[in-house]
Amino acid sequence: MTHFLPPGEIGDEEMALYQDARRRPRAIDLCRQGGAVVRSLEQNLRIGWIGIHMEGIPALKALLESGVRVEGVITLKAEARSRRCGSVEYTSGLRGFDLPVYEVGNINDDEAIAVLNAMSLDIAFVIGWGQLLRPETLATARMGMIGAHASLLPHNRGSAPINWALIKGETCTGNSLIWLSDSVDSGHLIDQVEIPISVYDTCASLYEKVAQSNRQMILRLVPRLLAGERPGRAQSPTDGPILPRRRPADGLVDWTLEAGQIYNYVRALTRPYPGAFSWLEGRCWRIWNCAVLPETKTADTIPGQIVGPVFSPLESACGQMVSCGTGAIVQLELEGPEGEILRGRELSNQGWERKVWTNG
Predict the structure, then answer these.
(1) Measured between alpha carbons, how far is 117 from 138 in angstroms, rounded to an integer?
(2) CA 159 to CA 246: how far, in whole Å?
(3) Alpha-carbon distance 230 to 300, whole Å?
(4) 350 neighbors 309 (Cβ within 8 angstroms)
(5) Domains detected in the chain
(6) 24 — alpha (psi -120 to 50), left (phi > 0) or beta?
(7) Please, are residues 152 and 189 in contact by the beta-carbon 8 Å criterion?
């Protein structure tokens, strides 16, 4: 079972007994999962895990199912977790495993560092965290901390790389496993996986692929770590900019953009993110899904103007056609300010023809 242990609720004596029991080496068997090497090894490393995002769960579960001992998981307290897009409750995701889970408010505060020091880690995996670790936090793992960044580093260093890749219309992204360092996404590269971006992908579908690539790369890496290796190579020099953070207010749709750009914008910001949004007759609507039309001439309309409803016997194809700077999109799913969802025939039956989406 998973033990839920907030840092303040475990005493020194209990911690000492826990550490002694988990310090004893044991043989593990890493099966061929996601390209991992089949071998039996004595686990001589103390491994920890830090994460809040769903992208880390498949990799952690695969390690545990392979018999790798993890000393504990650090995740965020519920209040802080609720403010992070794509976060999951690790205690629920790890049911059935004998694993302590610690909740902290900030990975760099004294409480979190005390927990990390108490675990006496050799290696810590930081997968799906979203907060820079300060040098004193990184120093709590003897060999170092390993993170994943959802791009082919050094390209797209910085925040929200999946969202930005879609917004920019890129056709390929990836995932990089790196040794964490003091500067942003600049540590030595351990492994990389390329991930194609199709016209059907959204941020959610790409993060599912990122999660599987985390699993694949970590299962490849752990046998090498246990064998005494510390793989890694310096990243190629780059003068590329660091991607800026995205905030919910950044989701406002610019209807003067081309239809394809707006389509990319909507699929980049859809669930689990706050969503692209626009205003209609004083009400703010989230645009969760849309379709892009081939080059379409919408005579006598302005960008953001609703051309009219789109009808189909297939309910999921019903929606509202909206003129863009060039071309048009079809809105397929909207959410109003009170949380009401419009999709299908209910959406196409709205009497919105010729009305205009605005910035507020």
Answers:
(1) 11
(2) 7
(3) 64
(4) yes
(5) 2-226 (3.40.50.170), 248-348 (3.10.25.10)
(6) beta
(7) no
Q: What is the 3-state secondary structure (H, E, C) of 165-210?
A: HHHCCCCEEEEEEEECCCCCCCCCEEEEEEEECCCCCCHHHHHHHH
Q: Output helix, strand, coil percentages for the chain, rounded to the nearest 5.
A: 30, 30, 45
Within 8 A by CB and 6+ apart from 21, the residues are none
Phi, psi (deg, nearest 5) at residue 118? -65, -30
Q: Is 8 helix (H, G, I), strand (E, B) or coil?
A: helix
CA angle 55, 61, 64 (to 5 degrees): 145
pLDDT tens, residue by residue, 161-181: 999 999 999 999 999 999 999
Do residues 100 and 73 make contact, with C-beta atoms less than 8 angstroms apart? yes
Residue 304 tokens, joined:
């953001």
Instruction: Name the stretches of the chain with pLDDT < 50.
Output: 1-11, 13-39
Residues 6+ apart with CB under 8 A from 24: none
* Whole-angstrom distance, CA of residue 34 vs CA of residue 211: 12
| Sheet strands (E) in the chain | 2-4, 26-30, 39-43, 47-50, 70-76, 99-104, 123-126, 144-149, 172-179, 189-196, 276-280, 283-292, 306-310, 319-323, 328-335, 341-343
- Give the Cα separation of 110 and 85 in Å (integer): 25
Tell me the residue type at 177.
Answer: L
> CA–CA distance from 6 to each of 10, 41, 50, 74, 79 (Å)?
8, 32, 14, 10, 14
Three-state DSSP state, 30: strand
pLDDT of residue 41: 58
